[in-house]
Structure formats: C-alpha cells, structure tokens
Amino acid sequence: MQEVLKFLKDAGTYYLATVDGDQPRVRPFGTIEVFEGKLYIQTGKVKDVSKQIQKNPKVEICAFKDGVWVRIAGKLIRDDRIEAKKHMLDNYPSLQAMYKAEDDNTEVLYFEDAVATFSSFTDAPRVVEL
Prior knowledge:
Blueprint: H1 2-11, E1 14-20, E2 23-29, E3 33-35, E4 38-44, H2 48-55, E5 58-65, E6 68-79, H3 82-91, E7 106-120, E8 126-129
C-alpha cells in the first residue's frame, strides 16, 4: 500500500476513469491518501464524476512517472464519516477553500477489492493487491 501511495504522490497527477452510460470518462486527480489502512480519493458530490461512481463504482486510475506506470482497478466506496473527510482535507490544505469536512458536498471514497499493476516497457508487470 505504501509503495502505491508513494508512487501516486510522487507522480503528482493520476487519471481516474469512470463509465458514463456506454462512454468512458477520464479526468486528472491529485488527492490520494491512506486512512485506516485503505486508499482514499476525494471529490465533490455535485460533480459528474461522483454521480458516475455512485452508478457504477468500478473505476481505474493510472499514473506515469520515470518510465513506469501504475494502474489501480477496483471499486470506490463512499465514506461519509467526518474523520475520513478531515484526514483528507488536513493533508490537502489547498482544498479547504472549496471543501469542508462537515459540508454536504465533500466526498471521500476508498478502494475495495483493488489491484495495482506496475508496468514499464522493459520489465514484466508486477501486481500488488490492496
């Protein structure tokens, strides 16, 4: 888990893929944290990405750094606890101008049944179960 977290943080930006009907949607994200042993992301409930995840929680993220990429496939589960939201916002103070742990918009989600696959053009893929 820590290897995956470090890779994503070092990459800075990862891309989250969701499904919108029969159309894939991909967008950049940057929030990533481990809370209570689970890998979390953050967004706003008013955004289309949140609505897509609630309809179909199966997602995939991908990040690239120094010739290596990681793909993480799994389900995202909403965690409405204030503690989880606060943990994320404490680690991303720049978000505090737009989000509050107590508001009805802030959403944190954790990966369930997730698998991370590290790949490159020179080495065989390596799988890490989260």
